[in-house]
Amino acid sequence: RSTIVSSESQVRADDRAHVFHSWSAQGLIDPLPIERALGSHFWDYQGRRYLDFSSQLVNINIGHQHPRLVAAIQEQAAKLCTIQPAFANDKRGEAARMIAEIAPDGLNKVFFTNGGAEANENAIRMARLHTGRHKVLSTYRSYHGSTATAITATGDPRRWPNEPVAIGVVHFWGPYPYRSPFHSDSPEQETRRALAHLRDTVVFEGPATIAAILIETVVGTNGILVPPPGYLAGVREICDEFGIVFIADEVMAGFGRCGEWFAIDHWGVTPDLITFAKGVNSGYLPLGGVVIADEIAETFRERPFPGGLTYSGHPLACASAVASMQIFKEEGIVEHARALGEDVIGPELAILAEKHPSVGEVRGLGVFWAIELVTDREARTPLVPFNAAGPAAAPMNAVAAACKERGLWPFVHFNRLHVVPPCTITEAELREGLAILDEALTVADGFYTA
Ligand code: PLP
């Protein structure tokens, strides 16, 4: 039997027969076969081209098939594909050094993983061993990955069918001015109340039981929630007061997405551990990790760190991270992402918000933006309910379909459209995509009831 896959029908047949897909009821999905990708676009087998406003899973920060990144991987593959983690290796060391150089001062070591969930899993393990405490505090409206502790730390419905998994995780509310859990009416009030709530949570959980506070620096999938001024500095203070490890999850927000190397650079705050993945090498190979403060690394100077992975610091993945960071520097990609946010996405989304009644709020930074859709601006009623699925999600599905028909691949979550193209997207491509969004928002306006 031929194993050459040449046609769309063969790709579809193999997929339907043998691929077990993430997060899905296997009989209710029909994955679109994709043939190729380049830059900000990908193509299906019908030759239809899609402008990738999702960066796949918000990870192709450098764009698809960057020729220099592909070449660097080929070069490394010809030299040394893999060597186990106990050896020293040039690309592994170089990647770790380059990451330490862009991280805040005092974070100088990197533990490599295959992705984001494992990064959070190991960051929590480090915090627990460093403090001798067991609890982890994380927020509602968060995603931290789908391994045991990471999914338990997650504050969205993906956790529910996985419970009970890990012990010792407590959820609290983070700031979200547009739908304030604290009923605040200004960002300043939101910061004050969110910090008071976090401090109360720490005090009542028992500070001596809490190893870590784990937060997404800018919450990603759960809404592109940019922390209001002073919030992250306040979290740092609470951690210092009670000897708690501050873990910043930058799996989605890091490596240019927010117009900085690390999103936390916006606020000049230094966490104890930073977890990363996705944008570090744009997923050309699986890679993630934890950047570790000197004080925590010191805990494991004489005492072994009880964790590891066959592919920790995989040379091919590390070579791609080195090349990707070099390309970012030489092509000014972080600066480009920041400028696109300030000069194009922010102003253009503000115009769309003026024009379309269904737009309740737009927010974001860099190439990391959300459009929150509502049926009533005054009441802020979401266009579809929280955790909507099936028929309840129909209005958002209609908006997504309007984008796809026009050649734009959107990122949709509950009642939000996220504008998360590659950091390398050109201004012309970006404007083309925003014009399509403008048309698709007319579909959302059709559901407006106020
Ligand atoms: N943390 C955040 C903020 C994420 O967005 C994700 C994935 O979307 C993860 C962790 C998990 O990363 P991975 O899917 O690589 O395990």
Mean pLDDT: 97
Count of separate structural domains: 2
| Low-pLDDT segments, ≥5 res | none
Q: Major sheet: size, sense and barrel closure?
A: 7 strands, mixed
Q: For the largest beta sheet, what order do the strands appear in spatially?
A: 4-10-9-8-7-5-6
Bound compounds, each kind once, are: pyridoxal-5'-phosphate
Find the CATH superfamily of the largest domain: Type I PLP-dependent aspartate aminotransferase-like (Major domain)
Helix and strand succession?
HEEEHHHEHEHEHEHEEEHHHEEEHEEEH
Overall 3D form:
globular
Helix-and-strand structural type: alpha/beta
Strand content: 15-25%
Radius of gyration: 22 Å
Separation, N- and C-terminal Cα atoms: 60 Å
What is the CATH architecture term of the largest domain?
3-Layer(aba) Sandwich
Number of helices: 13
Q: What is the β-strand count?
A: 16
Seen as an oligomer or otherwise, the chain set is single chain
CATH topology title of the largest domain:
Aspartate Aminotransferase, domain 2
CATH class annotation of the largest domain: Alpha Beta
Describe this structure in words.
The protein is built from 13 helices and 16 strands. It is α/β, with parallel strands linked by helices and 450 residues long. It folds into two domains: 8-65 and 333-445, Aspartate Aminotransferase, domain 1 (Alpha-Beta Complex), CATH 3.90.1150.10; 68-331, Aspartate Aminotransferase, domain 2 (3-Layer(aba) Sandwich), CATH 3.40.640. The strands form three sheets. A seven-stranded mixed sheet has the order 4-10-9-8-7-5-6, with helices on both faces. A hairpin with a 2-residue loop joins strand 11 and strand 12 (368-376). The chain is globular, with a radius of gyration of 22 Å. The N and C termini lie far apart (60 Å). The model has no long low-confidence stretch (mean pLDDT 97). The structure holds pyridoxal-5'-phosphate (PLP). Residues 57, 115-117, 120, 143-145, 216, 220-221, 249, 251-252, 277, 288 line the site of pyridoxal-5'-phosphate (PLP). This is Aspartate aminotransferase family protein. Belongs to the class-III pyridoxal-phosphate-dependent aminotransferase family. One of its GO terms (molecular function) is pyridoxal phosphate binding. Its cofactor is pyridoxal 5'-phosphate. It comes from Actinoplanes utahensis.
